[in-house]
């Protein structure tokens, strides 16, 4: 009996394990079926949303037209950019030559100013020298004038004495 019971238990465990495996396989099959349905639904949605060949051709033609317009616009912009670059180049050249001319002019004016400063300094030295000479000559003339006046005074005194002596004689 014990052996029968043990055999039954083994049989029951074996069937229970088989039952679990079948349930697990069923669960896996359900999961796969759900995945297949989801995939099928997604494909149907994609097919529904995909444009027709005619629509794709029209879209492609529109895109080609847009690209052509963009290419033309790009060419026009490139030409405008070249014009601007050329104008900028000419302006830069003009500005550089104007700067060079101004530098030369400033250099010339600076040189002239330097020469005039030298001339002014020379004239100032000569004027100072002439002023000293005039001052010395003035002092000499003042001394001579004073001597002349003194001599004139003596002359008059002597003449007056002379006249007085003549009268006395």
From TrEMBL:
Main location: cytoplasm
Keywords recorded for this protein, A-Z: Coiled coil, Cytoplasm
Annotated localization: Cytoplasm
GO annotations of cellular component type: centriole; cytoplasm; deuterosome
Cytoplasm in keyword set: yes
Keyword Isomerase: no
Biological process, per Gene Ontology: centriole replication; de novo centriole assembly involved in multi-ciliated epithelial cell differentiation
Annotated coiled-coil segments of the chain: 53-119
Protein name: DEUP1 protein
Gene transcribed to yield this protein: Deup1
């Amino acid at each position: 009996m014990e052996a029968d019971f043990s055999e039954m238990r083994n049989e029951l465990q074996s069937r229970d394990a088989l039952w679990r495996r079948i349930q697990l396989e069923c669960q896996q099959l359900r999961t796969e079926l759900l995945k297949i349905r989801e995939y099928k639904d997604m494909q149907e949605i994609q097919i529904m949303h995909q444009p027709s060949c005619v629509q794709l051709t029209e879209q492609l033609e529109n895109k080609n037209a847009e690209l052509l317009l963009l290419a033309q616009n790009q060419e026009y912009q490139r030409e405008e950019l070249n014009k601007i670059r050329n104008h900028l180049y000419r302006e830069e050249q003009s500005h550089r030559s104007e700067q060079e001319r101004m530098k030369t002019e400033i250099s010339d004016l600076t040189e002239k100013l330097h020469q005039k400063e030298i001339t002014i300094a020379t004239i100032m030295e000569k004027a100072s020298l002439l002023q000293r000479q005039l001052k010395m000559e003035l002092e000499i003339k003042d001394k001579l004038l004073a001597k002349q006046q003194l001599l004139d005074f003596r002359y008059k005194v002597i003449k007056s004495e002379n006249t007085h002596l003549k009268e006395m004689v």
